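Internal QA ticket QA-208
Title: Verify multi-chain structure generation after dependency bump
Assignee: T.L.

Test input:
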Amino acid sequence: MRDLSADAALLSLNTITVREQWSLAECIEGCVRHGIGGISPWRDKLEEMGAGEAARRIGDAGLTVTGLCRGGMFPAADAAGRQAALDDNRRAVDDACTIGARCLVLVVGGLPPGSRDIAGARDQVRDSIAKLLQHSRAADMPLAIEPLHPMYAADRACVNTLAQANDICDELGDDGLGIAVDLYHVWWDPDLAAQIARAGKKRLLAFHVCDWLVPTTDLLLDRGMMGDGVIDIRGIRQLVEAAGYDGFCETEILSRRWWAEDPDAVLPTLVERHRTVV
Amino acid sequence: MRDLSADAALLSLNTITVREQWSLAECIEGCVRHGIGGISPWRDKLEEMGAGEAARRIGDAGLTVTGLCRGGMFPAADAAGRQAALDDNRRAVDDACTIGARCLVLVVGGLPPGSRDIAGARDQVRDSIAKLLQHSRAADMPLAIEPLHPMYAADRACVNTLAQANDICDELGDDGLGIAVDLYHVWWDPDLAAQIARAGKKRLLAFHVCDWLVPTTDLLLDRGMMGDGVIDIRGIRQLVEAAGYDGFCETEILSRRWWAEDPDAVLPTLVERHRTVV
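Actual output:
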């Protein structure tokens, strides 16, 4: 297992962690200022300056782009909606290429409005990823399916376990397709160790960290800082590294509590927790 | 598949649905008034009048007791805590016998305070159920393990899938041990159909219904009335009945919205939804 205690070279800042406080330009400068080696922008932040300018500034700063968040949101009520989602995902692939991201993270989407057919939504997701792969493989941009916690099955992602993500990779082929493991979504899974091993080095494209708070007061915006909750973070990092993962630990904390803080206090906390509890 | 459209003879009222408005006495009278054939009290309601008096009144009303909610909460930080939990569960078995419940529902408990060891908590649960079975089998009271949604893994139940519950039944034996299937907790599970079939008639001891709202605004107290959310209720009822389930549909709705209503309006809504969407 790697020793991360020395610095934050293998820490990546997912920009949503300071979404309410900082622009992308400020995030880039903040990472440099606090010795954080990677960044993972959301597309809303990317649009502030455009992908080309973002690529230039991130490159000048010497940061690794651990992912672009996010593609996905595939299921739709009709063919036109599915096509629009696919077109948008192709643009996301292109932006990910422009900024040199290691992968495009896919939050695959939930039930179309009015639908109760989760099996059908899952079929749509698989079919849309298959179509997107034609473009992403040509562009040499890996797609990382991110299983989301089952509490988001209806409205954000109907891929809710690593087993499902692995099944999709089995079906569509590993070339340019893998998985983003986010602790928040998978920590509870009794099948976690087996499915991480099944994914293996080839599929493990990203590793996102935060913590599960007790109590959790909001379904979306109450994620915890690493160490403040109940997830066995180091134990799970051990699993992904035993499976061959050698990339960054990306902090993705959606939290009203942390959005109310000065980012120049948040980032040192991320660094300290990265070194001591991740 | 059974036709439930004629009446509410196979509907059971879980008392938590009107917890804030009615006493157990009022729940019993309300069921009779609205033609609801079953009742499932929580232990706090049972304590109001004592199990013996509750048994007499429920019997006089001609109601079937579809379950007693709840035993469980097994994991503890030390042996004394585990023993106290076990003792309390034995009393719950005795109360379930007194009121003639079809099963004692087990919400198994989450992580002990300060713990990040979910595998250890799961081991504690299995071991405690094994011990409780010595008492419950002698008393002829079936235990129904209720898998809870993964969003409750930390603080309410570390058994989060039907697969886990089936595994425990495999390990400890089917005699006096089964499963309570609650739609709210399992609807998202990609393995749902297979695990219901695996459970089969022998293990399917209870079937709880409500709905998953979009958006869901509270992790605990925002369950939906059947038909108001995205769960394919009839599709899942078809699965449990195809597996042999022939018991009641028990409505268990924890909801601030419905707790603010007059129960004499809530119960007719339960009946109408039972007949039309369950």
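Spot checks passed. The longest strand of chain A covers residues 177-182.
Status: verified.
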